[in-house]
């Protein structure tokens, strides 16, 4: 192209020179050398044009090839990007698989450890089962013994139940008697009140007689109160005496048991060791326990409370006969039990 441009510039100069030569008459006509040069230059121009056409054709073909190659390059770039994506995906998959593999391996380790621990536990459980079997056999033996004892206790329970029923019958009889006495008392009270109303209607002489009778009844009530107090004191005193007798009987039994267990020689030997007489040794043996003294104190307090309760009943308003009867019966039953105990102790000592 540069050569073509140079040639075209030279041709233009030539044409300009020819034109200037035609115009000027004084200037001579161009020579043969210039024509030859013109022809050479035209030939060169033609050849350069041919070459340019050839090169333009080659350029076009090359452009087409470049476009095709660019398209191929684009397709290859797309394929490369797809392959890169696939590679990335595969890498991610490989990493996931590796992490899963590690997790599975760790799970396998943990499962193996758990299996070993379970095997140990199974062994321990088997040993426990053997121990439990032996314990169950021993428990069965105990159960058999317990069933036998249960049957014995059931027999005792039935006996006690029968005795209780008998005592309940006695109690019901006593209660019925108490109710009858209370009814009689109420009837007496009603009749007395009716008589008092009738007497109130009578004259002043009758009132004086009634006052005298009332004084007598008050005296009688006071006598009854003194009687009740004396009776309760006597009951309490007799119960205390029985308790002391029972204690003495128990001590006597213990002393006799000690004397039976200990020979006369051993008693004398013990007295000589302690440097006391045999009677003093017997007194030492008869010393009361702390439990017995505490029990005696408790019984004394109960007796005191019982006396105070009866005093309250007597001082209380009507009716108090049923409560008084219950309290006296309670003390009488206690006395009865103590008498039975004393008699049994006396029979043993005899």
Automatic annotation (TrEMBL):
Gene3D superfamilies: 1.10.287.1490
GO CC terms in record: centriole; centrosome
Organism superkingdom: Eukaryota
InterPro entries assigned to the protein according to its UniProt record, in alphabetical order: CNTLN
A biological-process GO annotation: centriole-centriole cohesion
Region (Disordered): 1-36
Comp. bias (Basic and acidic residues): 1-17
PANTHER family: CENTLEIN
Protein name according to UniProt: CNTLN protein
UniProt organism field: Circaetus pectoralis (black-chested snake-eagle)
